[in-house]
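Board notes (copied after class):
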Amino acid sequence: MKKVLGPIAVIVIILAVLAMILVPSYNKFVNLEEDVDLAYAQVENQLQRRLDLIPNLVSTVKGFASHEKGIISDIADSRARLAGAKGPGEQADANADLSGALSRLLVVVENYPDLKANENFRQLMDELSGTENRLGVARKDYNDVVANYNRKVKRFPGKIVASIFGYDEKEYFKADAAANEVPNVDFGDGKE
């Protein structure tokens, strides 16, 4: 009987030690993944706020610059693309397109002094500016949480636990490559 209990006791001790190592590490992954999901939800929240403001901004501009249909159409298309984007990569690309379209809209606004003086337009621009700032903070916070999570996935012993339980690296919210380029502003004054 003692010969049978000896190996069983060793197996039980080994399993207990493994459980003491794996359970806290697994729980850490669960917590980190929740942090990533929460941070990403904040990015989506700010993107949604931005999407909600844009139709009001476009409507205000339409009243003053009805012949600028191309830019307004670009904004609507970019907004729809962002609304339908899935995951940080697609959202980052769609966000970059929308930012470019909004930049072109601001060039149009410069040609309409009455529009810049319009109270509704100024209020919408202030709200959009605030949203852009909050969006930047949310993206940074998300990327910080992803970095922390990814370090846990890549480091030992987390790498072993991550592979056992199927935790993979998360995707960063990256800026579009065109964000490094200076935008071309053309006021169309005919001068070369």
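Comment from the instructor: The first helix runs from residue 2 to 64. Helices lie at 2-64, 69-84, 87-110, 113-117, 119-154, 158-165.
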